[in-house]
Structures are given as C-alpha cells and as structure tokens.
Design a protein that fits this description.
Helix content: 25-40%
CATH superfamily of the largest domain: Enolase-like C-terminal domain
Order of helices and strands: EEEHHHEHHHEEEHEHEHEHEHHEHEEEH
Distance between the termini: 39 Å
Strand order of the largest sheet: 5-8-9-10-11-12
Number of helices: 14
Number of strands: 15
CATH architecture of the largest domain: Alpha-Beta Barrel
CATH topology of the largest domain: TIM Barrel
Radius of gyration: 20 Å
Length: 395
C-alpha cells in the first residue's frame, strides 16, 4: 500500500478552527487525523503539506518507519511545529494501518488495557470567561461571579463527572478575566508573577467549584506558563489544604520542576508542551511530576505510547493533553487504551454542538467514563460534507 495524497481540511468550531488531515492510499483506504492549528500563532497546514510530499509513495502501514524517517529530516531544525506536523501524518497512517487489519488502533500496541476511561471536564467555567460571547451565543450561561462557579461545579457533578479542571479567573471592575497562560501576547504576560491577593482569589474559585460539585469532586488547576519557580511553589503550598487532584503548569527547567514537587504535598502534573522521548527523559529522570502529560496529537500516538513506556519505567503515570474536538477525543482514547500507566483523560464537553456532525461516531461518555470504541481505526471517519457546511471563520 502507498500514500497517494495528503490533504488538510478545516471547519468552524465556534471559538476555534477544527483541523483535519486526510490521507489517501492506492488501496482506496483513507486515514484521518485531527490536529491543532493556531496554538503557536501560525498554521501547521504548510508544514503538513511539505512533509506530506515526502511521505507520498511511502507505506502508511509502516507508520513507525515513516514517522522516524520524517523526523530524521528535521534533525538540523527540529522543534515543536515540525513535530506536530509529522504527528498529524503519523496519526493518519495509524488510522489506515488499523483499518487495513480490521482492528482498532489500540490493537496495534497490544491494547486495550481498559475498555472504559475516566475523564475530567477541562477548563470548567474558565473557558466560559475566555470565550464568553461564543458560549452565550450557543445558549450556555456565562460566568460572571463566584456564584457562577458554584453553578458550574454543580453542572459538572450532574453530568456525571468525578473530576474537573479549571484555570484561575480574576474578577475586577471590568468583569472577569482568565489568567494569561504566559504564551499569548497581552498585558503582563512577560511578568509571570502572582500576588498574594490573586492566590487567595484562586482558593475562593476552587472552593466555589467544590461547594457546587460536592466534597467528592476531584479538583485540578491549570496555570500553564504563567509563573516562575517561586510563584508556582507559593501557589502549590497554599493549595495543599484543598487536596487537589493535581496542580498543572509548564516550566522548561527539569530541576526547578523537581524542586517544586519535592517541596509541596500538592500533586504536580506537567510536560504537555514537550515533544519526543529526548525532551521527556530529563524531566522523568528528575522525578519532577506525579503525572506526565503527553499530547498524542502533538507527538503522534505511536510516539506517545513510547513516551508513556519511558514514564512507566520511572513509575510515573501519564495523562493525555486533549483540548480538541470529536476525532481528537477518539484518538486520545486509543492512546489511553494502549498504555498501562494511565491516570485519567482530558475532555471538553461544552464544545460547539455542530462539531459532533463532523465525525461518523462521537465518543460515548457515561457517568464520567468514556467507552473505548471497538470499530476499526479510530472508530470514526470525518464527514467532509459537514465540514463544508461549516466553513472556518477565525474566532
């Protein structure tokens, strides 16, 4: 079997653009993958096209060889964008390879280790602040006060979730604002320093969520790249009394991460912005995290399983970074089903409702657990007619 063509397609996802790779073969099989576009402020599509030209004529069933071959071409200029573009092609190859064998993708890796996956509601409440106009447009109540976070906690519990994650939201005279994650140009994004009053506001926000969700709800806080070592450590220590499921943040210093973990009782999750085994190794060797976050769309599911295996050798759990759409949920689920050391899976349940029509089968969630699909490939194909009915428009 040979790859004959690799295309990118996009559609409107409300506050974001939904992006897909379509991989065609001379056997008539088509492989699909979802990818993120715009996280870095630029598009991956030209890179996917360029790497796709190299991949054309190669055998998609030899997905590991193809992935390593494309990565080898970037050795003098390796980096996140190149890794993400190659990952999108690798993931579409996995879909084809599994379909050719008539098995789910997880079967390529000896899975499934589980047929139900615990999921958590990600960016609960905080995205209704960041993307307030979009959520109001689709009829979901806005978040304008701590009372609304109480309501969001109740909404998550009523939907069957056992765990939720939010981002710091601060209320001021100009209304609520979500903390700058340290990777978007805006006021203060270079400062990366949190004050005592803001830390207390975070405690109040998390307490409001727990009030609504009940004492059994696991709480997570995601602060991205917003602080330096000192700020993360002060925040982690102050949150110890809340017994968080984890505190999540990003920092590009393995020793600093290990220091923070050693000096707090709050569990630490990190590393979602890393790419490849080589980048993960020093952080895992330093025992810097309780949970290593791995993005299967940025790394490729095959490469991600390799990273999870390395983490397992260091007695470390993994969890996927998965802030994306319906096909991405299924792709992350296959990663989760393929590794023994999974902790939990990220899921965003309040995406634009029309995006469910973009795939033939959406992920099924029951009582806070995703049911792992057993259909060939990812368990769904992209519906091109539905994409055409919702042309992309930048949020």
């Amino acid at each position: 079997m040979k790859i004959t063509r690799i295309d990118t397609l996009q559609a409107d996802g409300g506050y974001r653009v939904c992006s897909y790779v379509k991989l065609s073969t001379d056997a008539g099989l088509v492989g699909w993958a979802e990818y993120y576009d715009g996280f870095s402020g630029t598009s991956l599509a030209p890179l996917i096209k360029s790497f796709g030209a190299t991949a054309t004529g190669m055998d998609p069933c030899q997905y590991a060889r193809l992935s390593e071959t494309l990565h080898a071409t970037t050795r003098l200029a390796s980096g996140g964008l190149a890794y993400q573009a190659i990952a999108a092609i690798e993931n579409a190859c996995l879909d084809v390879a599994a379909k050719a064998r008539g098995v789910p993708v997880y079967a390529l890796f000896g899975g499934p280790f589980r047929d139900r996956i615990g999921v958590y509601w990600t960016h609960c409440g905080s995205y209704r602040v960041l993307h307030a106009a979009f959520y109001e447009k689709i009829g979901l109540a806005p978040v304008r006060s701590l009372d609304d976070f109480v309501r969001m906690g109740r909404e998550a519990a009523d939907a069957g979730f056992k765990t939720l994650k939010t981002n710091p939201v601060f209320f001021g005279p100009n209304g609520p604002r979500m903390i700058n994650g340290g990777f978007r140009i805006a006021a203060g994004f270079l400062d990366r320093s949190i004050g005592d009053a803001q830390i207390e506001a975070v405690v109040e926000q998390l307490s409001a969520l727990r009030q609504g969700a009940g004492p059994a709800m696991g709480l997570m806080l995601d602060t991205s790249f917003s602080q330096r070592t000192e700020g993360y450590l002060r925040l982690a220590r102050r949150l110890e009394a809340l017994s968080l499921y984890w505190l999540e943040f990003d920092i590009r210093d393995a020793e600093a991460l290990a220091l923070i973990r050693a000096r707090t009782r709050t569990p630490i999750a990190s590393l979602e912005s890393l790419h490849g085994l080589a980048e993960y190794r020093p952080y895992l060797a330093q025992r810097g995290v309780d949970v290593a976050l791995v993005d299967p769309l940025w790394n490729g599911v095959w490469q991600s399983v390799r990273i999870a295996t390395l983490a397992d050798a260091y007695e470390t759990h993994v969890a996927p970074h998965n802030p994306v759409g319906e096909l991405g949920n299924l792709m992350s689920a296959h990663f989760c089903a393929s590794v023994p050391n999974l902790r939990i899976m990220e899921l965003r349940p309040d995406e634009a409702p029309w995006t469910r029509s973009f795939v033939t089968h959406s992920a099924r969630v029951e009582n806070g657990e995703l049911i792992v699909p057993d259909r060939p490939g990812w368990g769904a194909d992209v519906v091109e007619e539905a994409l055409l009915a919702h042309p992309p428009s930048r949020a």
